[in-house]
Amino acid sequence: MVFRISRPIVLTAVLFAAGCSFVDDSLLPVLTGGEPKSAAGPVAIAPSAAEANPNPTVSGATAVAAGVVTPAQIMAPAAIAAGTPPPLGTTNFITPGVTAAPNTGTFVGQKVSVLRSELGALQGRLQLRNQQLQQIRTTTTGNSQAYHGTIAAVNARLQVGTTPGNPILINQWNQAQLQLERIGADISSMNSLANAVASDSSMSAYLLESTRAAYGLSGAIEEDHRQLAILEDETNRTVVLVDRLLNELSEDISRQTAYVGNERANLTTLSHSVKNGELLGTSLSNRAYLASAPVANSSPFTGSSTQNFAAGNRQPLVVIRFDRADVPYEQALYTAVNRTLQGRPQSVFDVVAVAPMQGGAADVALSQSKATRNAQKVLRSLTDMGLPAARINLSAAASGQAVTNEVHIYVR
């Protein structure tokens, strides 16, 4: 049974010389262990910049069906540059200072002296907060640069191809994880600093209210009110400074927290790439960032007959044929799902185990069991790539047209 893709996103899946082939006259990616079928005829395509590169960085053996895709198109998703950390605030918070003035000797004058002393102490604490903030920013920048340098080294080694479970890459991955944890510790330091600044904000608001209330005290002379006006202006500027410091800290914490969360997901996917010795890309969770779409409780295929299988009337995104012990399907699967999520971030994926209806009842039951295990393997691969488990449905079906165990992936 030959499926054709009719959806607007045209999938260009990776074809492995020993593991994958295209369905005849179709753009549907079929991953199989058999030899690729011959194409109708070659089509002349001008080489791209990547093909003309005398030192290409290609991972794995590839074969291109004539006139369908180019090697540059196939490998483009794998050539993913290392991410960059979010920008930190750059403001250097300088306190406005406190104007010195003599004590007039009145009750209001004594009150002004106390308020001026408290404002000076507050500004001294703010200077210390500013120094701590600049130090945290410097440390965070250094940790981020070290982290991305390690990640870039791992990605570069994976992109040109390496052995599965390379111990050098495992050590580098462990080092990257420690460096990311240091960035997480920097976020904790920012949180502690934000709590201290919040306390200073309350103090600055109290000083401003007290200064304004001092205008209503009796027994003041003109000099007292003149000093109060200057003190009120300086307190106002301090309040604005504290608010800006607190807002910038909050923005830094928010960006860094989201960044560390995404990088942890990327590290999980990268560990899967190190295990396979081949670069996949960033975590699919970076694409599936929106709220999950409603997941149907029932499977789209409820029976085991050919009629029930065809009743879904949907075109599969990917077909994986497990006609050998080790089918290298993960790179093509990642490419297909990643491109789908780029256009439709809320997509839900149905993973269907398809067993052939050949032989007796015992043979069919055995095929169904193997197909289910293969589908579970594909599901684990998707979750290792970062796709949330809530976005994946697993079901089973049987087909009289299938000649070997298959796994179909559908999008909705």
Q: How far do the termini sit from each other? A: 22 Å
Name the helix and strand elements from N-terminus to C-terminus, one letter apiece.
Answer: EEHHHHHHEHEHEE
What would you report as the Rg, rounded to the nearest angstrom?
A: 32 Å
Percentage of residues in strands: 5-15%
How helix-rich are the residues, as a percent range? 40-55%
Question: Can you tell me about this structure?
Answer:
The structure is a single chain. This protein is α/β, with parallel strands linked by helices and 412 residues long. The protein has 2 domains: 20-80 and 284-411, no CATH class; 107-276. It is 50% helix and 8% strand. The chain contains 8 helices and 6 strands. The protein has helices spanning 49-52, 71-75, 107-159, 167-213, 222-276, 306-310, 330-343, 361-384; strands at residues 20-22, 29-31, 318-321, 349-356, 392-399, 406-411. Strands 1-2-3-6-4-5 form a 6-stranded mixed sheet. Strand 4, helix 8 (361-384) and strand 5 form a beta-alpha-beta unit. The chain is elongated, with a radius of gyration of 32 Å. The two termini are 22 Å apart. Residues 1-30, 32-43, 53-82 and 288-311 have low confidence and may be disordered.
